[in-house]
Amino acid sequence: MNVDRITVRGGKPLQGRIQMKGAKNLVTKAMVAALLGESPSELRSVPEISDVRVVQGLLELHGVSVERDGDTLRLDPANVRTAHETSINAHAGSSRIPILFCGPLLHQLGEAFIPDLGGCHIGDRPIDFHLEVLRTFGAVVEKLPSGIRMTAPNGLHGAKIELPYPSVGATEQVLLGAVRARGRTELKNAAVEPEILDLIAILQKMGAEIQVDTDRTIRIEGVDRLVGYSHTALFDRNETASWACAALATGGDVFLEGARQPEMTTFLNVFRKAGGAFEIEDDGIRFWHPGGDLKPVVVETDVHPGFMTDWQQPLVVALTKANGISIVHETVYEQRFGFTEALVEMGARIQIHTDCLGSHACRFGARNYQHSAVIAGPVELHGADVVVPDLRGGFSHLVAALTAEGTSRISNVGIIARGYERFIEKLETLGADFDVEG
Ligand code: EPZ
């Protein structure tokens, strides 16, 4: 369903059962990994989100056939070919995934082209780590007005790499490049998010040799050939945290089918500290507001196993209802509190500071970035007209509108469909009161 604007009448607790599918931040990378195989791959639990459609379009442009049957994708890379620059630019949209095509395309075709990269506007989001990794593997990188062109005249070779920060994308870049490179790769300061471990599981199924040490070091032994995989994607941890916070903020009770405890323990600790209740079942997790006051918390976002940066936005909405002062220190992205402006318009009492208000100073502290939020509660939010700025910020605006007194009009909600499968249907299932406009 293509929806641009939604009018929400707030005040109804969300109640019911909805399904969590595969993680956006794994599925899209798993689709790229299929490029590396000599035979077709099958990926299950693929959500219907626009980021998946963007990657599907890019794969098809490169000759990969992609068939969807329910929530299963079959990807066949038998006829991989070079795509035209202008079509790549037209298809990439605002996704950042194209950068991850580079390693596999350099292996398969000896060349790759990527457009100017988009993604959510939550900071500079540079790609310097990625380009450095590719150069270290032996790629020749050429910046053109239309994008970045790469070649690998002598193929890619393994290398010793140390990331300046445990970047998720750069770690994936190393994995997708190293598995078929000549010789060994040692990656230090790697990200070890569950989505990365699931990508490693997929690559291992394909025939790759990858070892993860306890100290964020990943060792990869390059192999000559890889085959297709068959895999059920890890559930979406970000979608899970978002709906859990929506239940807490609205005083609701939701069962999130497919959510699992082991990958959510850090979130669950904070959810409980804030006064939320949860129950773990074999087939999912129930999250609810048990009544009484919500409690303020102090949270610092971090790389895994820390509290994810993608969890703070809906949590901030719930914290406007907590009785006292909460602090959220964002240490992953330098500019991820832009979404709070709309919450303040809706009556929230939130101040953003450039100081590190957490237990440790982060790399943004001395650089004047507005990266710590102080949230005073409890407040009653009231309806407002809001324009969605980015994926997670947009979802938090939706949550705020659901808790608010009166009516809110939220525009640009299409962005939310980048990462939340059928969120309109899910809102209906959970009993929200709203109308949509195309
Ligand atoms: C992934 O982004 C996710 N996106 C993000 O989810 C998520 O917030 C992030 O990881 C952290 O978990 C996808 O998986 C598609 P990073 P990624 O490289 O890989 C800096 C969402 O809402 N950096 O770990 O792009 C960067 O600026 C999205 O689902 C460089 O400086 O994140 C940031 O400060 C948003 N140079 C930090 O590293 C680089 O070349 C971490 O970014 C790359 C990153």
Q: What count of helical segments does DSSP give?
A: 13
Parts with pLDDT < 50 across at least 5 consecutive residues = none
**How large is the radius of gyration?**
22 Å
Q: Provide the list of bound ligands, each named once.
A: ligand EPZ
Mass-distribution shape: globular
Structural class: alpha+beta
InterPro entries: Enolpyruvate_Tfrase_dom, Enolpyruvate_Tfrase_sf, MurA_subfamily, RNA3'P_cycl/enolpyr_Trfase_a/b, UDP_GlcNAc_COvinyl_MurA
GO biological process, one term: regulation of cell shape
Catalytic activity: phosphoenolpyruvate + UDP-N-acetyl-alpha-D-glucosamine = UDP-N-acetyl-3-O-(1-carboxyvinyl)-alpha-D-glucosamine + phosphate
Protein name: UDP-N-acetylglucosamine 1-carboxyvinyltransferase
Give me a quick take on this structure.
The chain has helices at 24-33, 50-61, 85-92, 102-109, 128-136, 168-178, 194-206, 237-250, 265-273, 312-319, 340-345, 391-403, 423-429; strands at 5-9, 15-19, 41-44, 65-69, 72-76, 111-114, 140-144, 147-151, 160-162, 184-188, 209-212, 218-221, 230-232, 253-257, 277-281, 284-288, 298-300, 324-329, 349-353, 372-377, 385-387, 407-411, 434-437.
